[in-house]
Amino acid sequence: MHPKTIGLIAHTGKPGVSELIHAVAEEFGRHSMSVLLEKETAALAGQRSDLTIEQLGAKADLLVVLGGDGTILNVAGQLGETIKPIFGINVGSLGFLTCSSSPAYREAVEGIAKGKITFSDRTLLEVTIKNSQERPMIALNDAVFSRGELSRLIRLRARVNGEPLTEFNADGLIVATPTGSTAYSLSAGGPILAPESGVLVITPICPHVLTNRSLIVADSSLIEIEASDRDYAVYLSVDGREALRLKMGAVVAIRKAKTTLQLAAMPDMSFFSVVRQKLKWSGSNV
Description:
The chain has helices at 17-30, 39-44, 53-59, 69-78, 105-113, 184-187, 271-278; strands at 5-10, 34-37, 62-67, 86-90, 100-101, 118-129, 137-139, 142-146, 154-160, 163-170, 172-176, 199-205, 215-218, 223-227, 234-238, 244-246, 251-265. The protein is of the alpha+beta class and 286 residues long. The chain has two domains: 5-117 and 266-278, Rossmann fold, CATH 3.40.50.10330; 124-258, Tumour Suppressor Smad4 (Sandwich), CATH 2.60.200.30. The protein contains seven helices and 17 strands.
C-alpha cells in the first residue's frame, strides 16, 4: 500500500502529543505526502480543520492514530460506513492494536511511505438493539453486558442462530472478536484468539454456575442476548463507549459486520510477538 493522503488523529489528552502531531506531519511532508487533521487534533496543534473523524475517513487513504488502543477503538467506532486502514502510534506503552512507539515515529512514517507496512484484516461486530430507535453500532473489540453499579448478578438469555444456549446468571457477559479476545474477555478468563481465526467468543463475567465457560462460535453466527432479569437493569457498552440501559426483554443481536478493518503492523512485528511481550511470556519455567 502506498497511501497519498494521510488522516491524522490524536488523543488530545496525552502529554506531549501536540509536539508529536507537528513532528509526524512534518515527516510525512518530507516524503511528499498530504496530511489532513481531524478538527480536535488540528486545534491542539494550533491549526484549523472542520473535519470530523468520519469525514476524515472518507478523504484519507490511511488513518494514523496517535494515542493508545482506546483511541483506535474510538476512531473505529466513529468511521461510519467508510472503514479505512488504521496505523497506530502509541503515546505511552505499546498496546495490542498500536504498532509503533512515539519515539520511533520516523521509522513508522518511512515504512508507510515506502509501502513496507503489513495489514491484518480485523473482524468488526455489528451490534443492534432490536425494535429500538438506536442505530446499529460497530465494535472492533466487544459488546459487554453489565449490571451497572449494583453489586448483584443479572440474568441474560443467550441464543446462537436462533437456538437457545443458556441463561447466564453472572456479573455480565462479553461477546468479543478475535481482536477483543485480548481485552476484557481475557481478563474474564476467555481464550486468546488469533486475529484471523474466523470465530467469536462469548465469555461470562464471574458466572454463578461454575459450568458456564467461554464458548467459541463461528463468526458467521447470529448471537442474540436478551435482558431477562425482571427486577434489575442491564447495561450494554460497545468498545467501552457510554453504556446504554436495556429495557427488560430487550434483545441485542450481534453478528459479524459486512466490512472489516485493516489494522497496520510494522514488518518486524507479529501478533504473537506482541502477545509474548504484553503477557511477558519468556518461555521460562520460573
